Inverse folding.
């Protein structure tokens, strides 16, 4: 009963974020936050839940972005088919690459995800006839859907917000599902989990593909948001950024990455206003974060709460 | 035929660069078990230091030594101030720290040198081509292969034949035991990281007249070095050397057939190796 209440409370908090964000900040920033948050939550399924330290999640985000962009422009497809292609493409790419590398652990897995990310980046760079190469893919329009004009910023935000909340619900369900429990068990002790009869690689590959699908969705929404695909969307820096979001938010819940995404988008905006060399400030901030908030914001709050409890206990 | 021979020599030169880069990564991996995501940035540091020293009139050899030293010093600071203090915390934080450091280094280089990138004409002695009778060979390529080979031999001698080297090997094999023997493992890790970082810098310096440099050009090199490391097998320190040279030659030969796809070939080879489930040329220990 208590856990159901806790789940409802967390869901209410996520809905509140989606509703309140455009009221307290420019709607374009709020929109970027909820889109990037989908990407961050998907990454948390891989990094936080499954404990697979991927440094190449941007290739699925980027694949979704380019597939959606291509479907909408040269493909001449509508909104829903384009987004479905992006989601399927993200999942399929994750399936192919995951099948090759999911059994590799630790150091190997990290290097290989990075290497494949760089390969994807290279393909996009060289295949400039289709992708626009270094200049990115431009000229993307938001098609109308079911009579809604997505060029209206509020309407587009509402669509993204619905998908954002839906992604949260689905990813949280997966985290709490038998699959999620097998993943968490395998993270702690893969051998024992295997000996209990669970197929660890199959579970991990499934999670990797689900994360790829949601990263693809986020990529597609990102493209619709900016009507443009920058090549940065598929670069390894984007992969590093999303690891940062997951770490700063904390991996223990799906709410953490949402906060991580908010912090990232805000910082990016703030730093780029201050200085053209904003990535330098961002890098310094990452180093600062690593040394101070070692367990992420959520854990910091938990630590503060514990501190308060201790103080109350000593007073009481 | 001469075209093929020329591409093989070209491949040896490039492959030697990959090998130097990957051997540095391999040492860092062996000692600290962390993928050095700042390796590309350290490559760029080496390239720019080599450029600066050359433009103020230093001999090219000094510029190369400077490239090694500068990156080694940056690496020393990264380990001492960063990684050493994160030893007890999660693997993810160490990697994130290296990512942040890479951003800081790259952006600092952009700040100092601008975004356009630099290039360098090799010194007169090394420019032009040597006549081998049946073909002309760019002197700088030969120099590149030679210096790369010398650097690798020097590191091999250091690690296999000196006292400090035996400690580094012991640190890779049995870290706790080394500590029990009263050897300062912290110092060993710092030195090892500095050595690996220095090799990235040296590769950057050697590559400068060949490829030019900009702040982010090291990242392609880093990705290739990771692939080389996987192909060489993580268990062996020197597997990376063999794999690096093979990759360089294969890539150069591929440019004869399909220039645009030659970089892609590296990843194709990697995928093939993964598919057959091999543990790389020299396997995991």
């Amino acid at each position: 009963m208590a856990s159901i209440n806790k789940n409802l409370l967390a869901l209410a908090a996520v809905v509140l974020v989606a509703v309140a964000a455009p009221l307290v900040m420019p709607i374009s920033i709020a929109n970027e936050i909820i889109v990037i948050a989908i990407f961050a939550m998907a990454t948390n399924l891989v990094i936080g839940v499954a404990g697979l330290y991927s440094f190449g999640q941007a290739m699925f985000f980027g694949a979704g972005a380019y597939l959606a962009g291509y479907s909408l422009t040269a493909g001449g497809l509508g909104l829903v088919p384009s987004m479905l292609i992006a989601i399927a493409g993200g999942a399929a790419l994750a399936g192919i690459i995951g099948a090759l590398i999911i059994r590799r652990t630790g150091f190997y897995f990290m290097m290989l995800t990075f290497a494949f990310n760089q390969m994807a980046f290279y393909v996009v760079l060289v295949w400039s006839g289709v992708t626009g190469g270094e200049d990115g893919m431009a000229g993307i329009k938001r098609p109308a859907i079911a009579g809604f004009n997505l060029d209206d910023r509020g309407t587009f935000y509402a669509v993204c917000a619905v998908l954002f909340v839906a992604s949260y619900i689905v990813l949280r369900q997966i985290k709490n599902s038998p699959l999620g429990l097998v993943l968490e068990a395998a993270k702690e002790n893969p051998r024992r989990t295997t000996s209990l009869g669970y197929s660890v690689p199959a579970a991990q590959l499934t999670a990797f593909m689900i994360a790829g699908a949601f990263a693809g969705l986020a990529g597609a929404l990102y493209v619709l948001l900016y009507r443009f695909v920058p090549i940065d969307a598929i670069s390894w820096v984007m992969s590093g950024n999303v690891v940062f979001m997951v770490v700063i938010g904390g991996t223990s819940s799906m709410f953490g990455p949402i906060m991580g995404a908010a912090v990232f988008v805000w910082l990016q905006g703030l730093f780029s206003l201050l200085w053209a060399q904003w990535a330098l400030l961002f890098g310094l901030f990452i180093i600062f974060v690593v040394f101070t908030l070692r367990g992420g914001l959520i854990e910091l709050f938990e630590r503060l709460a514990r501190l308060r409890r201790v103080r109350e206990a000593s007073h009481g | 035929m001469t075209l093929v021979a020329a591409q093989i020599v070209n491949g040896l030169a490039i492959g030697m660069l990959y090998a130097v880069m990957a051997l540095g990564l391999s040492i860092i991996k062996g000692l600290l078990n962390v993928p050095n995501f700042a390796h590309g940035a350290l490559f760029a540091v080496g390239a720019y230091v080599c450029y600066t020293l050359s433009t103020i009139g230093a001999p090219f050899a000094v510029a190369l030594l400077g490239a090694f030293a500068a990156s080694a010093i940056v690496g020393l600071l990264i380990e001492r101030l960063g990684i050493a203090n994160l030893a007890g915390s999660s693997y993810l934080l160490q990697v994130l720290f290296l990512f942040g450091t890479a951003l800081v280094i790259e952006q600092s280089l952009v700040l100092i040198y601008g975004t356009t990138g630099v290039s360098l004409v090799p010194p007169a002695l090394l420019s032009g081509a040597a006549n081998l009778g049946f073909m002309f060979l760019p002197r700088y390529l030969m120099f590149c292969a030679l210096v790369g080979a010398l650097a690798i031999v020097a590191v091999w001698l250091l690690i296999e034949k000196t006292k400090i080297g035996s400690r580094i090997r012991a640190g890779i094999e049995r870290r706790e035991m080394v500590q029990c023997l009263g050897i300062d493992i912290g110092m060993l890790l710092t030195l090892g990281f500095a050595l690996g970082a220095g090799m990235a810098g040296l590769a950057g310096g050697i590559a400068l007249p060949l490829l030019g440099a900009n702040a982010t050009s090291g990242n392609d090199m880093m990705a290739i070095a990771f692939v080389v490391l996987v192909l060489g097998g993580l268990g062996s320190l020197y597997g990376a050397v063999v794999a690096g040279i093979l990759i360089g030659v294969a890539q150069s030969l591929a440019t004869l057939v399909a220039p645009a796809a030659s970089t892609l070939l590296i990843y194709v080879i990697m995928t093939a190796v993964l598919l057959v489930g091999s543990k790389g040329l020299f396997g995991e220990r």
